[in-house]
Fold this protein.
Amino acid sequence: MFKGFYTVTSGMTTQQRKTEILTSNMANANTPGFKADQSTIRSFPDMLMSAITTNDIPTKKGLNTVKATPVGALNAGVYLQESLSNYTQGSLLETGLSTDVALVDGTLPVDETSGKPGSIFFRLQHPDGNEAYTRNGNFTLDGQGNLVTGMGLYVLDRNGERIQLQNDNFTISPDGIISDENGVQVAQLGVSFAANTDVLMKQDNGLFRMLEGEALPSAYESQGVSFSLQQKYVEGSNVDAAQSMTSLLSAYRAFEANQKVLQAYDKSMDKAVNEIGKV
């Protein structure tokens, strides 16, 4: 009976965590550059239950033998194994702002370890001095003319330096070259390449960082990588709102089903303690 409690509870906990992931995806369906999270649910290994009995042997010494009678398999419940981000390209949205820029994926090599293609990101300077990465190209200029994100993080160029501009009257070529209003080249927008996206750690506000805090290699210098940049556009979220809503409803129903089973277990336990125990 108690094992049933644990199994049902694990199912409810798993569905609750899945609901939280789907809710976050839905909340960021309109966030530029947001990458939807996907969850993987697995079951614990089944346990083989056996009933242990003894058979008496009619001898002078009264010997007996132990006998195991198979009862059947018992499922130990499920758990949410991991949550991974989906790095597929989102749709491009035109904004008309010169400070907005979108990354457009070209050829991205498939990583041998993960079996998935890599991904490219804008280079940012994190407040701790290391680098952070994002696909959200909704940039702006601060009071000193530095190109920054909406959170105030500095956007870095190809050499890892801050990008400073006189005003927002500048152009960005498809290969990332930033030119001022006089056509003078100021910098090349920094773009990094992650060959294995599983080593990235997702943080708030669409930021990604390496697990150990190290920097990603430049996408310009990575072999087999091709991409382009589109000024006055931002990359939209790759969240499939319809599919996320369907999955969210399924998770709710699964949670409610486990809840009803838990209530049935509770009623059975109540009878076992308060009624059968009196006999």
